[in-house]
UniProtKB/TrEMBL annotation:
Keywords: Signal. InterPro entries: WD40/YVTN_repeat-like_dom_sf (IPR015943). It comes from the Eukaryota. The lineage of its organism: Eukaryota, Fungi, Dikarya, Ascomycota, Pezizomycotina. This is Fucose-specific lectin. Residues 1-19 form the signal peptide.
Length: 397
């Protein structure tokens, strides 16, 4: 009996060690705040831990690799603010850091401006930023150390249609991609193999084929393949990749046309012509075991529906997109009461099986998990932040 009790005690200790608290930041779309949420993976609860005041609203945030700083987009004056992360996960504005993204090549950048930030998970862990103006087709991308230094280097892209909407980095840390949603194009830079994270002046501009008004809005980059989603048609697409990291295609009128290798429908087709869902986010898990897609529901004549969360497998040998494994309804008790709903998936940094999904304007964050060694998809819990939440979410740990 004593041995049995000792065994149970040992198992309890092991479980206690495995259980951990994890944290997320969620920025508000309309208020000057960033919420710190705490997720307990043992009790499976998600709760508000801190509410930090910010200088402005932040449409895009990034946590640096050291988990000491948050780089936050300041759209109004095309800059990036830096907040120090406290021991209690509160945020404090670092007045001596931060950096502007204006550059003479694109002056004057007129309102409205959109700033995006991306923290590289690969050495030397630079934070890349981009800004563009809806009124002028010119974009700027620059890079800085996590503490905000060395931010005086930049590259500009100016053409008839260029607006950088999203930045993506390849795992070799030698290739940076910019996605232009409006003109359905992708730009590829080479990153110099050195400690300063600089990207070269030359870039390669490629356009997606079948540009029929159905936008490619998000993309993940694998070792040998691009995986993208089309918002209107709710498709997941695969695109081949050259050894140099480029998307192969054929040259038409002096531009590269990117061909899709395959396509799969993400959400169930409807019999009517009115779209009911809009796939807005794609994310690969931390070790690229799964690829996740979020498809919020649009307002329909019948009322509000729940959107979908979809999980695809990844070939362990080739790293390529596999078949669809799971699809479940997102939890949306509040209903999507405004236009332009979005759902954003953020993969957990601590396990392939967890993701967080923020729904705007439903104003909630959901936690989902692949359970049973890949046997089923489980809705874990949620936090309701109200109609002003959440423009951006980001895992800290």
């Amino acid at each position: 009996m004593a041995r049995i009790l000792s065994l149970f005690s040992l198992l309890a200790c092991i479980c206690a060690v495995q259980a951990a608290l994890h944290h997320l930041f969620a920025s508000s779309k309309y208020r000057n705040t960033i919420a710190t949420l705490e997720f307990d993976d043992e009790t499976e609860t998600l709760s508000l831990a801190k509410q930090s005041s910010t200088l402005t609203q932040h449409s895009s945030i990034a946590v640096d690799h050291s988990r000491k700083f948050v780089h936050a987009a300041f759209d109004y004056n095309s800059s990036v603010l830096i907040y120090n992360i406290g021991d209690d996960y509160s945020l404090n504005l670092n007045l001596s850091a931060g950096y502007a993204l204006q550059a003479s090549a694109c002056d004057p950048l007129q309102q409205p401006l959109k700033v995006r930030v991306l923290s590289s998970p690969y050495p030397p862990y630079y934070v890349y930023s981009s800004v563009h103006s809806d009124s002028r087709y010119c974009s700027i991308v620059n890079w800085a150390l996590p503490d905000g230094t060395h931010a005086d280097t930049w590259r500009s892209v100016e053409s008839d249609s260029w607006r950088l909407d999203k930045l993506i980095i390849r795992s070799d840390n030698l290739t940076l991609y910019g996605l232009n949603i409006g003109s359905q194009a992708m730009i590829t830079w080479r990153i110099f193999d050195g400690p300063d994270g600089m990207i070269n002046y030359n870039f390669r501009e490629s356009y997606f084929m079948d540009r029929d008004g159905v936008n490619v809005v998000d993309m993940v980059v694998g070792p040998k393949q691009f995986v993208a989603i089309r918002e209107g048609s709710n498709e997941v697409l695969t695109i081949g990749m050259s050894e140099e990291g480029f998307a192969p295609g054929h040259n038409t009128h002096s531009v590269d046309e990117i061909e899709f290798s395959s396509r799969q429908t993400i959400v169930p087709a409807t019999n009517d012509t009115t779209p009911r869902y809009k796939t807005t986010s794609l994310e690969a898990s931390v070790n690229r075991k799964y690829i996740w897609a979020a498809s919020p529901a649009l307002t329909t004549a019948e009322g509000y529906e729940a959107g979908f969360i979809t999980v695809y497998g990844v070939n362990a040998t080739t790293g390529e997109l596999g078949t669809r494994l799971f699809q479940e309804r997102l939890d949306s008790e509040r209903g999507y009461s405004r236009e332009d709903p979005t759902a954003t998936i953020v993969a957990a940094p601590f396990a392939d099986e967890y993701v967080a999904v923020s729904s705007f304007p439903a104003g909630q964050i959901e936690i989902w998990k692949v359970e049973g060694d890949g046997a089923w998809l489980k809705y874990v819990t949620k936090w309701e932040g109200g109609a002003e939440c959440c423009s951006t979410i980001m895992w800290v740990d």
